[in-house]
Amino acid sequence: MKIGIYGGAFDPFHNGHLSMVKGAIASKKVDRVIVVPTGMPCFKSTRKVTLAPYRYYMVKAALKDVPKCEVCDIEQVYGEPSYTVTTLRNLREKKIVSEKDELFLMCGSDILFEFESWYKPDEILKQARLLCALRPGVDEGQARNQAAHIEEMFDTKVKFFEIDGVEVASSRLRSTTAGTKWCEEENIPEEVRRFIKSHDLYCEDAPLMHVSDETYQKLIQHSFTLFREMGGKRLLHSMNVCVLATRYAIRFGADPDKCALAGLLHDCAKELPEKEQLALAAKIIQDYVPSKQILHSPAGAVYAREHYGVEDQEILDAILYHTIGREIMTLTDKIVYLADKVEPSRDYDDLSMIRTLAEHDINAALIECYCAIKESFARKGQQIHEDTKKSLAYLLANRSQ
Ligand SMILES: [Fe+2]
Ligand SMILES: [Fe+2]
Predict the structure, then answer these.
(1) In this structure, are residues 130 and 107 in contact, taking their beta carbons and an 8 Å threshold?
(2) Which residue has the higher pLDDT, 153 or 46?
(3) What is residue 283's three-state secondary structure?
(4) Tens of pLDDT, residues 118-136
(5) pLDDT digit string (tens) for 216-271?
(6) Which residues of the chain are in CATH 3.40.50.620 domains?
(7) Which end of the chain is less crowded, N or C, counting CB atoms within 10 A of the terminal residue's CB?
(8) To which CATH superfamily is domain 2-197 assigned?
């Protein structure tokens, strides 16, 4: 089988990328296309690239209905820089493609002019041939001349295919399309627009730019581990909590590093088997067994320490108290608790009031949030947890301070 391999940061995935995939399939030069979103880019500053799981699931959303095409997570599971040569080798080793498959590395004609400077171009071409897109408006003669040069230099054959559509650059989209304008951006597929909106990506304040380099590296590494350990929905939720908690930290004067880490890891134990969660929780709770709904909080605090190397007690506490709170919450506790309940993809209730209050008064937002939970429990004939009651009472008693 002839397989097109299409790698990229896809930050964001746009119609230019979509035309590459569809064009390659329509050209019949390949039988199917495997799209490989970059895990950790080697050439760009990691700060400038959106965290990998966001980009991976964005591409999945964009291509879910495109036939003969699949999105591959091979670069998402390794927490190290992704070189094309390694990815091609891994695709064979992990049997995502077979030894018999013929691989074609899909690229734009601009790549022909920089290909020689790539990492190990000769080895890349031992594993795959270049399949180069000719977009309307590109200088075909120049591209074919450069291809002839590469063919001679590396003893390979470069293939071409034609595609429709205009040149779009992700970097230009990121710099010109700030904030809410993403939902009107016509160079972005509808599914991607929806994805960007529901996860509040590419927002102007870019909270993660405010965390330290050391913490940013940890966020990257942890998101690779989380990718392997939890499903997409929960991972995206965790990343949303991470970003929102960081925004709140900046707004209310908490430590952005701590809030970012606690936010990302707050549900880290939630998809572990119940037995494992019980064993983890028992290390810090001896006098009772937590109910199923809140079990992942103590389990998560222990797991974050043992598995993710978190030593900071403030972070561990924010994870421990994120489901029910405690009488006297630290600012970090409050931020993570609230971010968990109102992160942008949450749509279970009308959260607008809580979100508005959280723009300037974290205590008022938390009171509103507790009251909403209390009412929803009451509708089901249930009561909120004793610790949540205490936390609410404490906040109400100290309201004006
Ligand atoms: Fe949770
Ligand atoms: Fe959560």
Answers:
(1) yes
(2) 153
(3) coil
(4) 999 999 999 999 999 998 8
(5) 999 999 999 999 999 999 999 999 999 999 999 999 999 999 999 999 999 999 99
(6) 2-197
(7) C
(8) HUPs (3.40.50.620)
Q: Exposed (0-12), middle (13-18) or buried (19+): which is 128, by Cβ within 10 Å?
A: buried
Say which ligand is closest to the CA of 299. 1
pLDDT at 157: 95
CA of 338 to the centre of ligand 2 (A): 10
> Given this model, what pLDDT does residue 47 score?
76
Return the residue matching tokens 């809030």. Answer: 259
* Amino acid in position 51: L
CA of 323 to the centre of ligand 1 (A): 6
What number of residues does the chain have? 401
Separation of alpha carbons 10 and 56, rounded Å = 8
Whole-number Cα distances in Å, 120 to 61, 83, 123, 157, 229: 32, 9, 5, 17, 32
- Whether the model clears a pTM of 0.90, i.e. scores above it, the answer is yes
Query: Which residues in the chain are classed under CATH 1.10.3210.10?
Result: 207-397
The radius of gyration of the chain from alpha carbons, rounded to an integer in Å, stands at: 24
Q: Tokens in use for 287?
A: 């006098």
Report the topology of domain 207-397: Hypothetical protein af1432 (1.10.3210)
Tens of pLDDT, residue by residue over 316-336, are 999 999 999 999 999 999 999
| Ligand 1 centroid distance, CA of 203 (Å) | 25
Whose atoms come closest to the Cα of 346: which ligand? 2
